[in-house]
Amino acid sequence: GVLVFTFILWEAFLAQRNVLYTDNASYSREWDIFLPLDFHSNTESTVSIM
Q1: pLDDT tens digits, residue range 20-44?
Q2: 40, 41, 42, 43: which could join 36 in a potential S-S bond, CB 3.0 to 4.6 Å?
Q3: DSSP assignments along 1-50, one per residue
Q4: pTM (global) more than 0.85
């Protein structure tokens, strides 16, 4: 299994094919919102530990 995976990986780097289809390559819904969100703040992390 490891040999097959290594061969596939080696062949992919060697061939350097172009991308055939990209739907959301240059943008993502995740980047439309302001990060970090409130529930990822440092204050909540310290409160949840106490």
Answers
A1: 766 655 565 655 666 555 665 555 5
A2: 40
A3: -HHHHHHHHHHHHHH-PPP---SSSS--GGGGS-SS-GGG-HHHHHHHH-
A4: no
